[in-house]
Structure formats: C-alpha cells, structure tokens
From TrEMBL:
PANTHER family: FLAVIN REDUCTASE, FMN REDUCTASE (NADH) RUTF. This is Flavin reductase family protein. The lineage of its organism: Bacteria, Bacillati, Bacillota, Bacilli, Bacillales. SMART domains: Flavin_Reduct. One of its GO terms (molecular function) is riboflavin reductase (NADPH) activity. SUPFAM superfamilies: FMN-binding split barrel. GO terms for biological process: pyrimidine nucleobase catabolic process. Pfam families: Flavin_Reduct (PF01613). Keywords: Oxidoreductase. It comes from the Bacteria. The keyword Metal-binding does not apply.
C-alpha cells in the first residue's frame, strides 16, 4: 500500500474538528487537529497527536499545557485559519479558560496539563490530564473524506 492509499483509507473515518491552543511568552499559538481522543475516565485523560515538524509540537513540549476547542458547524473558517488554509491574516476571538486560550463559541473547551508524551513514528502523542471542561450547545463541524461536513441526525 502506498501513502495515498493509506490516507484515503484514514479519510473514511469521520472526525470532529478541534483547535489545539497554548500560550508561550504571551503569544497565543494554535493548530487544527482531528487526531484527538479521550483516553481515560479515571483519571480524566485525553491525547492529541502532533507532528514533530509542527510548531505546536515545540510549544506543547515547552509549556506542558494545552487547551482543546471542539468546533461548531459554523466555525469552518476558524478551522481553515489554524490549518493554514486561509490567505492573509484572520482575526480569531479567544476566551481565556484556566489560563489558556480557547476558541470563542466552540461546542466545548478543555484545559489540560501534559502528563506523558510518547514518540510514535513522525508524531508525538501528548497525553494530558483534564483540569476543567466548559460546554455549549450546537452541532459539530466534521471532517470526512478530506472535506468539511455536518452532522445529520437520525429520526
């Protein structure tokens, strides 16, 4: 199997879209990620997989903290901004949650403290303990087969 075939297979798994954020030297840093998951209920652990070449890799290693914002269906432009898919500068509004920047009006925000990191291929799995969560209402922004999508409820 070649890289393209593998990527095509992985695109068949629909995911929610999150923005991972942290702050370093008073600057906010963020990236769009769909390689995020819940790991454990007790203790409350989550994991994000970050490529070793991504700037966020260095920021999380340095700060030992990150926040996760789950994007709502009307936040596609925010996802594209943090994925580097938008031309020019875009202004993004943040709220502050437990000392970390989170995306305003996201469906949920999670503040985390890194407890472990594991190298996995060309990525690092940053496992973090959740310190707090904030919830809102709405529908999620999804990613499926390389495209943005919306959830459709079953009747």
């Amino acid at each position: 199997m070649d890289d393209r075939q593998f990527r095509n297979a992985m695109s068949m798994f629909a995911t929610g879209i999150s923005v991972i954020t942290t702050t370093l030297d008073y600057d906010v840093h963020g990236m769009t990620a769909n390689a995020f998951m819940s790991v454990s209920l007790n203790p409350k652990l989550v994991l994000v997989s970050i490529g070793e070449r991504a700037k966020m890799h260095h920021y999380i290693q340095t700060t030992g903290r990150y926040a996760v914002s789950f994007l709502a269906e009307d936040q596609r432009e925010i996802s594209m901004t943090f994925a580097g898919q938008m031309e020019g500068q875009r202004s993004v509004e943040f709220d502050w949650f437990n000392g970390l920047p989170v995306i305003r009006d996201a469906l949920a925000a999670i503040s985390c403290d890194v407890v472990d990191a594991h190298k996995a291929g060309d990525h690092t799995l940053f496992i973090a303990e959740v310190s707090d969560v904030r919830l809102a209402t709405g529908q999620p922004l999804l990613f499926y087969q390389g495209k943005y999508s919306r959830a459709h409820a079953f009747a």
